[in-house]
Amino acid sequence: MMKIVNLWGLFSIPHPPNLCYNPGMAERFVRVFSKLDLSKITPQLLIYGDISGTCAGCQKIDIKLNQPVCPECKSEFKFIAFRNIRAHLPKLQQLSAQRPSVTIIDYDDYKRELSASKAADFFK
């Protein structure tokens, strides 16, 4: 089942050539909405809290942000959701530089859509 999940992505914000600006500051994190299949996201999702993360696939806890795979189920983390994104904004630049293939998704959207999906399955 396809659901819309809020994603965070890097987009270049163009500046007119006659204005002075810092070229290093041209890219910003902005929200992007995209339809994704939750059943494909969950096995490859790292849910990161204040100091460590949890694998959404196998529920292994105490996973560090820089680990590319789950130590338990060996699933590659292609998606990361932060429980409190505002507390981790400084880490986003570093994360995007180290692992550009990772997609950051909004935790609240993921949780809401996952709950709705479970409720729909329950009432079938």
Model description:
The chain has a domain at 38-122. Helix content is 24%, strand content 30%. The chain is built from three helices and six strands; from the N terminus they run ββαβββαβα. A hairpin with a 4-residue loop joins strand 3 and strand 4. The two termini are 14 Å apart.
Keywords:
6 strands, 124 residues, 3 helices, 6-stranded mixed β-sheet
SSE arrangement:
Layout: E1 2-12, E2 27-37, H1 38-41, E3 45-48, E4 53-55, E5 79-82, H2 89-98, E6 103-106, H3 107-122
Parallel strand pairs: 3-5, 5-6
Antiparallel strand pairs: 1-2, 1-6, 3-4
What can be said about this structure in brief?
By secondary structure, the protein is α/β, with parallel strands linked by helices. It is 24% helix and 30% strand.
Instruction: Note the overall shape.
Output: globular
Instruction: Return the average pLDDT rounded to an integer.
Output: 82
Tally of separate helices: 3
User: Distance N terminus to C terminus?
Assistant: 14 Å
Strand order of the largest sheet: 2-1-6-5-3-4
Low-confidence blocks of residues: 10-21
Number of strands: 6
Beta content: 25-35%
Helix content: 10-25%
| Major sheet | 6 strands, mixed
Along the chain, the helix and strand elements come as EEHEEEHEH
Structural class: alpha/beta
| Rg value | 16 Å
